Automatic annotation (TrEMBL):
Name the record gives this protein: Nucleoside phosphorylase domain-containing protein
GO MF annotation: an example: S-methyl-5-thioadenosine phosphorylase activity
Keywords, in A-Z order: Glycosyltransferase, Transferase
Pfam families per the UniProt record, alphabetical: PNP_UDP_1 (PF01048)
GO cellular component, one term: cytosol
Domain of life: Bacteria
């Protein structure tokens, strides 16, 4: 297993003496990668998916980040996220390991041609069961409370947060969390048949924010900063403990790198090309 993790893993980078890496990709250089070994696993931390400054979600260099993992031969990826809680059980500061996602907006980036023929990514199951087990085991080992399932609603490509009606709809759909950054990273990683898993920290909750006007913005900001800092530290400990107790996880048994065979899973690839 060669692992890529999108996370500012400041403690592990320092403790394990990871070295800074610069990777030049066809989509531009990626110079915030830290590489080393964690419990026998070659690990590369991408120090945040934003390029060191705040950008709208559609300007995040997803293609360059994924290409950097290609260059490093990363086969397994953990994406870490800051999200909002949607269902009532999620409060600010909670951690969630989602089991699936809804991504209606669609990634507005051009997709890599692969070997010249486009083929849709296989996304059932969405997240790698072996990597999910690794995170759940890491959380239990470290005594960290996490929601071990949930649907992430990806809200990508809008320069705003969700409307009340949108959040209300998500709640009716049974969504647990909402965020702007899981896709297109997820799709780009799965197009490469990369094993992929996500873990998120909620900085607020839809139900607590319903009376947003009554809240002090400074208190909210301070609470969010704390939730993000605590979340990142928990992600580090969970990943480390999950790797430490990995044993002989048969990664190949998860089926992530299998190409879909059922035609109903990919109408596009089963459509006769001469009719396109
Ligand atoms: Zn897998």
């Amino acid at each position: 297993m060669k692992l890529g993790v999108v996370l500012r893993a400041e403690n592990l980078i320092r403790e394990k003496e990871f070295r800074r890496n610069r990777v030049v990709t066809p989509h531009g250089p990626v110079d915030r990668i830290f590489s080393g070994t964690l419990h026998g696993v070659e690990t590369h931390f991408l120090y945040g998916r934003f390029p060191g400054r705040r950008t709208p979600s559609w300007e995040i260099p997803y293609q360059a980040n994924q290409s950097a993992f290609d260059e490093l031969d990363v086969g397994h990826q953990i994406g870490t996220y800051v999200v909002g809680g949607v269902d009532k059980s999620v409060r600010g500061g909670d951690l969630v390991i989602p089991h699936d996602l809804i991504s209606f907006s669609g990634p507005s980036v051009s997709m890599p041609p692969g070997n010249g023929r486009f083929s849709n990514a296989h996304v059932v199951p969405a997240f790698c069961p072996v990597l999910r087990s690794l995170l759940i085991r890491g959380a239990r080992e470290t005594g960290t409370a996490v929601h071990e399932s949930g649907v992430y609603f990806n809200f990508y490509g809008f320069a705003r947060i969700e409307t009340d009606a949108e959040l209300n709809l998500m709640e009716k759909l049974g969504v647990r969390l909402v965020g702007q950054t899981l896709d297109p990273e997820f799709t780009l990683a799965r197009l490469r048949h990369r094993h992929y898993v996500a873990i998120a920290v909620a900085i607020d909750s839809y139900h607590d924010m319903k009376n947003e006007a009554e809240q002090d913005p400074d208190v909210f900001r301070a609470r969010s900063r704390q939730a993000i800092a605590d979340g990142r530290e928990s992600f580090e400990r969970i990943i480390e403990a999950g790797l430490a107790t990995r044993g002989d996880d048969p990664a190949e048994k998860c089926g992530c790198d299998r190409v879909a065979t059922g035609n109903h899973r990919d109408m596009f690839s089963s459509f006769p090309e001469d009719l396109l």
